[in-house]
């Protein structure tokens, strides 16, 4: 089935795969370096994770309109090379004994900004490579790669750190972006002509958000996604504290509890095109959006020993299979129901909003856990997640995803699934 997507997509997929595996290998690398090399405090580690997201998101705001009038492939290559150069400074500085915490913060900010810009450009570029009726197949392939990298990358990365030192995975991650840039460079399919005139007004900086909020189904999917992602990610550090500190799980059991269920992501991403070809996108999105909201509350009931480990495994498995069906379906839906002239700005606005809400909610939940308990913070996140399905659009059409052909139409004139 991948051959039906064409040679250009295979190059894009290969480039995405190598960078995804590099990211998987480097999972938690900045925190490891900050703690083991720079002896950072827990507050500094939290600041490193949050500040990179916040500052990176703010720097990415002007990139949306800037990228809209440019060819997307050169932007993607530039962002990959930017991440390669930024990450490579870490092992160089480490070897010279000159690595500092501000240096790590600058690299985290640079890579976060480049990630947002690259994701927006690649999403818009994918829409030019793939016909609308094959978008879900393409996004599901990318989603399956994300989950396979999540399963394999962190354990291999942990081994690399043990044998090669704390900056080993950062070096490998840097090289992965160089290889990704080379893969994207190999694509020969020309991009469609760009608009001859591209506005540079300051008001265009918020055009992505304006486009989202002017379209009711997109607006509801947007607010639902922000809430779900923020609450899931905010609870994640508290689950680590609960399992490793309060319940005394060994580190290998904690890693196993979150790595093994990622195999569900491979299953879900493969199921997504089949489900969307038989049901409307609204049915698939609403069902999986509801299921993923029901799962995380189970983590608040984690107990010591084998029962607790089984609880986390089952909860994570159910959560991930729901997410891995929902995510590529929403990605295809979002691209299909947005005018081509707004793709990059919309995706940039979406990524920026997600980064900011995750960072803010994570800090808030850390404060809450500090003044109560990690279990209380996890339970509150789980309870709030139960309300998120009410944010999803409720109306339905009768067309499955395979029949969508909307290129070039204004969203207000399209009969939207879920509108």
Structural commentary:
The chain has 419 residues and is an all-alpha fold. Helices cover 73% and strands 0% of the residues. The protein contains 16 helices and no strands. Helix 7 crosses helix 14. The longest helix has 32 residues. The chain is globular, with a radius of gyration of 21 Å.
How would you summarize what this structure contains?
This protein has 419 residues and is mostly helical.
Distance between the termini: 31 Å
> Compute the gyration radius: what is it?
21 Å
Task: List low-pLDDT spans.
Answer: 401-419
Q: Roughly what percent helix?
A: over 70%
The H-and-E topology, N to C, reads as HHHHHHHHHHHHHHHH
Estimate the strand proportion.
Answer: under 5%
Give the tally of β-strands.
0
Q: Biggest β-sheet, characterized?
A: none
Structural class: mainly alpha
| Mean pLDDT over the full residue set | 80
Gross morphology is: globular
Total DSSP helices: 16
List keywords for this structure.
419 residues; disordered C terminus; globular; 16 helices; mainly alpha
Set out the fold topology.
Blueprint: H1 7-25, H2 29-36, H3 42-60, H4 63-68, H5 72-96, H6 101-129, H7 135-164, H8 168-185, H9 207-214, H10 216-246, H11 251-259, H12 263-278, H13 281-294, H14 305-336, H15 343-371, H16 374-385
Helix pairs in contact: 1-7, 1-8, 2-3, 3-6, 3-15, 5-6, 5-8, 6-15, 7-12, 7-14, 9-15, 10-15, 10-16, 11-14, 12-14, 13-14, 15-16
């Amino acid at each position: 089935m991948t051959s039906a997507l064409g040679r250009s997509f295979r190059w894009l997929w290969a480039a995405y795969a190598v960078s995804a595996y590099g990211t998987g290998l480097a999972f938690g690398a900045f925190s490891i370096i900050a703690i083991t090399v720079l002896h950072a405090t827990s507050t500094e580690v939290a600041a490193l994770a949050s500040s990179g997201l916040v500052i990176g998101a703010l720097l990415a705001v002007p990139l949306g309109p800037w990228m809209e009038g440019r060819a997307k492939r050169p932007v993607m290559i530039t962002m990959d090379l930017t991440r390669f150069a930024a990450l490579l400074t870490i092992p160089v500085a480490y070897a010279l004994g000159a690595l500092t915490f501000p240096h790590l913060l600058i690299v985290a900010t640079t890579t976060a900004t480049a990630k947002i810009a690259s994701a927006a450009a690649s999403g818009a570029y994918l829409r030019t490579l793939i016909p609308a009726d094959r978008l879900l197949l393409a996004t599901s392939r990318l989603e399956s790669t994300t989950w396979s990298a999540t399963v394999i990358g962190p354990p291999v990365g942990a081994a690399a750190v043990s044998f090669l030192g704390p900056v080993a995975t950062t070096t490998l991650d840097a090289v992965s972006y160089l290889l990704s840039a080379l893969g994207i460079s190999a694509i020969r399919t020309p991009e469609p002509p760009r608009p001859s005139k591209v506005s540079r007004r300051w008001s265009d900086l918020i055009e992505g958000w304006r486009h989202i909020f002017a379209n009711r189904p997109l607006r509801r999917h947007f607010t639902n996604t922000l809430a779900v992602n923020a609450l899931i990610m905010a609870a994640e550090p508290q689950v680590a504290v609960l399992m490793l500190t309060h319940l005394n799980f060994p580190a290998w059991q904690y890693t196993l509890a979150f790595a093994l269920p990622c195999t569900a992501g491979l299953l879900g991403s493969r199921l997504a095109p089949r489900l969307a070809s038989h049901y409307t996108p609204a049915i698939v999105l609403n069902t999986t959006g509801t299921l993923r909201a029901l799962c995380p509350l189970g983590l608040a009931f984690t107990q010591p020993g084998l029962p607790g480990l089984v609880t986390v495994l089952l909860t994570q498995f159910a959560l991930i299979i729901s997410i891995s069906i929902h995510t590529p379906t929403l990605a295809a839906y979002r691209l299909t129901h947005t005018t081509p002239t707004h793709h990059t700005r919309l995706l940039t606005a979406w990524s920026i909003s997600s980064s900011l809400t995750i960072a803010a909610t994570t800090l808030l939940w850390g404060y809450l856990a500090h003044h109560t308990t990690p279990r209380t913070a996890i339970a509150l996140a789980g309870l709030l997640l139960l309300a998120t399905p009410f944010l999803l659009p409720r109306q339905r059409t009768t067309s499955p995803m395979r029949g969508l052909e909307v290129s070039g139409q204004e969203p207000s004139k399209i009969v939207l699934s879920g509108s």
